[in-house]
Design goal:
The chain is an alpha+beta fold and 156 residues long. It has one domain: Small protein B (Small Protein B, Chain: A, Beta Barrel), CATH 2.40.280.10. The protein contains 4 helices and 9 strands. Strand 8 and strand 9 form a beta hairpin. It is found in: Cytoplasm.
Length: 156
């Protein structure tokens, strides 16, 4: 009996710091060009997006700085580079829209999450504007006041 396909994406890694450092404007889903050992390490959940970012070069989009830890059982004849630059797969129209936003309007491309969808590794990238220090403080203050309100409601 065949196993049913996953309908719910399974999360591999998240970039929580992106929500703190940027105003997220628009999200895109992209595929990843991976080597065999990278796919195996992703299945084991060995990925980190914390210090990664997305760059545009020659009309193509690349993930830079993401760390995929190789498994100990990786083949000995392959030199595994955990932080290599990986190409992202998007439609041509989406790429041109992202290039225009990044070059003309001063947006940044930020990876948000890495997940499995129908057996394929996908990454969610976002068009984002950087937050200033006072914006970050205001967001922290608002979050703290919401927590205090929740506590007060629970106690009464």
């Amino acid at each position: 009996m065949a196993r049913p396909k996953d309908t719910e994406p399974r999360l591999i890694a998240q970039n929580k710091k992106a929500w703190h450092d940027y105003f997220i404007e628009q999200r895109f889903e992209a595929g990843l060009v991976l080597q065999g050992w990278e796919a195996k390490s992703l299945r084991d959940g060995r990925a980190q997006l914390k210090e990664s970012y997305v760059i545009v070069q020659n009309g193509e989009i690349f993930l830079f700085g993401a760390h995929f830890s190789p498994l100990k059982t990786t083949s000995t004849h392959i030199k595994a580079d955990p932080t290599r630059t990986r190409k992202l797969l998007l439609h041509r129209l989406e790429i041109s829209r992202l290039v225009g936003a990044v070059e003309r309007r001063g947006y940044t491309l930020v990876p948000l999450s890495l997940y499995w969808k129908f057996g394929r590794a996908k990454i969610e990238i976002a068009l984002a504007k950087g937050k200033k220090q006072h914006d970050k403080r205001a967001a922290l203050k608002e979050r703290e006041s919401n927590r205090e309100q929740e506590r007060a409601i629970k106690q009464h």
